[in-house]
Specification:
The complex is a heterodimer of chains A (about 375) and B (about 230).
Chain A (H helix, E strand, L loop, with lengths): L7 E9 L4 E9 L3 E5 L6 H9 L6 E6 L2 E4 L12 E4 L11 H16 L10 H7 L15 H14 L4 E5 L7 H18 L3 E5 L2 H7 L2 E6 L2 E7 H7 L11 E12 L4 E6 L2 E6 L8 E7 L3 E4 L10 E12 L5 E8 L10 E7 H6 L7 E6 L3 E2 L2
Parallel strand pairs in A: 3-8, 3-9, 6-7, 7-8
Antiparallel strand pairs in A: 1-2, 1-4, 4-5, 9-10, 11-12, 11-14, 12-13, 14-20, 15-19, 16-17, 16-19, 17-18
Helix pairs in contact in A: 2-4, 4-5
Chain B lengths: L5 H34 L5 H13 L2 H12 L4 H8 L9 H26 L2 H9 L4 H29 L3 H6 L10 H10 L3 H32 L3
Helix pairs in contact in B: 1-5, 1-7, 2-5, 5-7, 6-7, 7-10, 9-10
Classes of the chains: A alpha+beta (about 375), B mainly alpha (about 230).
Chain lengths: ~375, ~230
């Protein structure tokens, strides 16, 4: 294997339960956040459990950075895998207080590896600080709120010094306010801690906000895998995911137009006006533009209620699951950086495609009806 | 009033010795058995549960009768004990211990089993992903969480063995220092119409049993109120 293949997680799991069988096989980068997305009951948590070694009856292969965890001959048990796991409800130890919960995995790591606390990647001090746990340390875990439980659970998992962190819908049990707070923390973890994370979720908004890579699971199979935008574009092949096709773009808030209560966002060289960003000038935000919200015009019509119009060139056409519609890939014309990220998707009818006589490389205007801010 | 005779002291001592030994062995047997019953999806598990619970419903005389048959020199346990060089088990302390283990088994297994089955399985998995070996998981996570069940089981097993009468009468008889426990001694006094002696020994058992149960319930209440102890 080449050096480049070294930082990958490779897995292949196959099993038939009485009423559910699955075959999960993929290679994902061992960096950033890889989201595992699918409807409930599709088997995404099972995949996570297999990777953690919690389903020893499942046959398969798993290697992380070329370290074999499981193959036909070998099975490294869960407690020797060095993979952190955050459960949906936290799974905190009820007989220990918060601090004892936090140090449980840390002490195991120190004992198992005969290490001393100077060699740690994640220290108690730094995680207590990052996750805002100082005021909770002496508290008993049954006195914690849902959000606090998850913060403790995440910090506890990280303190066991894992090479990989698995998160199974860590926000599912939380209310909206706690969810937002925890999402912000997860973004900080992603930026500051440099640990690869596999993140299971059924919520596309969480996925768009956090993920760099995306695996889509349907009925016990991985149907799509790749970087976030290429997977989001490919969803048009699936009937049940038509609504979710779109792109996620990085932007920066550059101005605040107080008269109209709008924020100006610089996004890959072009400017968008958005309402209710709740962001400060200079903030980096992620925005999501769905293909169904982008319509195409030949002229730069000034006479329209649509605020955001962007000049684009047509790069590609693609079939969709619906025989009425086609999907267009549009490269943003003003984009100086010419990075691959700077494109939009638009779903239009075959009829419009014919009427407008659209061809590859044509200059068109993308009219964006709605933009959602994911962070 | 509490000036006990030598025989009475001997009977009380024998009772405590029997109950302690039985409780100790029962904890060793019941913990893995309760774990298996709580976690197993085997189709034999309901049958094993029923077998364990049998002493709850069977009259002690039935249990004692079968033990008498089994302990006889031609019986299965009798042959085994002779082969092992233990001699006959009927009318011996060892025989009492074996019969008491079976007799008190459900009282120890059931509280432990309840504690295991209400204990969230997820915490075991969490401990494993945090680098704890199965042995470490057992003593650092499982045991502290089922402590109430273990203590309840131990106390109930002890108390129930102290209160044993029918089985002992059937297989142990009434040999001072060997099989004459307090309950049998009281029976002997009553048969001899010696009520004042029977009163004394009965009062001791009554107070003892009350104190033990009071301790158990206070402990359970304290744990369920505070969540910790």
């Amino acid at each position: 294997m080449t050096e480049a293949n070294k930082n990958f997680i490779n897995f292949n799991f196959e099993h038939a339960y009485t009423n559910f069988d699955f075959c999960f096989s993929a290679e994902v980068p061992a960096q950033g956040i890889t989201a595992i997305w699918g409807q409930s009951g599709c088997g995404k948590s099972t995949l996570l459990r297999c990777i953690a070694g919690l389903e020893p009856q499942v046959k398969g292969e798993l290697s992380i950075n070329q370290h074999c965890m499981q193959d036909k001959q070998n099975f490294v048990p869960a407690h020797q895998r060095n993979i952190g796991y955050v459960f949906q409800q936290g799974a905190l130890f009820a007989h220990l207080n918060v601090e004892e919960n936090l140090t449980y995995g840390l002490n195991n790591y120190l004992a198992n590896n005969k290490a001393n606390s100077q060699q740690l990647t994640f220290t108690l001090e730094s995680l207590v600080e990052l996750m805002g746990l100082r005021y909770l340390l002496r508290r008993s875990v049954d006195k914690l709120s849902g959000g606090e439980r998850q913060r403790v659970a995440i910090a506890r998992a990280l303190l066991s010094q894992p090479k990989l962190l698995l998160m199974d819908e860590p926000l599912a049990a939380l209310d909206q306010q706690n969810k937002q707070a925890l999402l912000k923390l997860l973004e900080q973890i992603k930026q500051q801690l440099k640990i690869p994370i596999l993140y299971v979720s059924h919520d596309i908004n969480e996925v768009c906000r956090l993920a760099d890579h995306l695996l889509v699971i349907q009925d016990g199979k991985i149907v799509e895998s790749g970087d976030l935008n290429s997977v989001l574009a490919s969803l048009s092949q699936y009937q049940w995911m038509q609504e979710q096709v779109g792109v996620v773009l990085q932007g920066q808030v550059v101005a605040n137009i107080a008269d109209w209560q709008l924020d100006k966002i610089n996004c890959h060289g072009t400017e968008l006006l958005l309402a209710n960003t709740r962001a400060e000038i200079g903030d980096n935000i992620r925005i999501r533009i769905l293909a169904k919200d982008v319509s195409i015009s030949r002229e730069q019509q000034a006479q329209s209620s649509i605020v955001n119009r962007i000049a684009c060139r047509i790069k590609a056409f693609a079939e969709t699951a619906s025989s009425t519609n086609m999907q267009l890939q549009l490269v943003i014309e003003d984009n100086q950086a010419e990075s691959d990220d700077a494109y939009l998707l638009s779903t239009i009818t075959r009829y419009s495609l014919e009427q407008l006589n659209l061809q590859i490389n044509d200059l068109v205007y993308a009219q964006i009806k709605a933009v959602s801010i994911v962070s | 009033m509490f000036a006990l005779t030598h025989e009475e002291l001997q009977a009380l001592w024998l009772t405590v010795k029997l109950a302690s030994l039985v409780t100790f062995i029962l904890l060793l047997i019941s913990t893995p058995l309760a774990w298996w019953l709580a976690k197993s999806r085997s189709r034999f598990a309901p049958s094993i549960s029923a077998l364990v619970a049998l002493p709850l419903v069977l009259p002690p005389s039935v249990l004692g009768f079968y033990f008498l048959i089994a302990f006889a020199p031609q019986g299965p346990i009798g042959q085994l004990s002779q082969w092992l060089g233990l001699g006959s088990l009927a009318f011996s302390f060892t025989g009492l211990v074996i019969a008491s283990i079976v007799y008190s088994l459900p009282f120890v297994v059931q509280p432990i089993q309840n504690a295991f089955s209400t204990f969230p399985h997820e915490q075991l998995e969490a401990a494993a992903t945090l680098g704890a070996s199965p042995f470490k998981v057992f003593y650092s996570v499982v045991l502290p969480n089922v402590k109430v069940g273990l203590i309840t089981g131990a106390v109930l097993g002890f108390a129930h063995t102290v209160g044993e009468f029918g089985v002992i009468l059937m297989i142990g008889g009434n040999i001072p220092g060997e099989t004459q426990v307090a309950s049998v001694k009281i029976y002997e006094y009553v048969e001899a119409m010696d009520y004042s002696q029977a009163h004394r020994l009965s009062a001791i058992l009554l107070v003892f049993s009350f104190v033990v149960l009071l301790a158990v319930y206070r402990f359970q209440k304290k744990v369920s109120v505070t969540g910790r102890d």
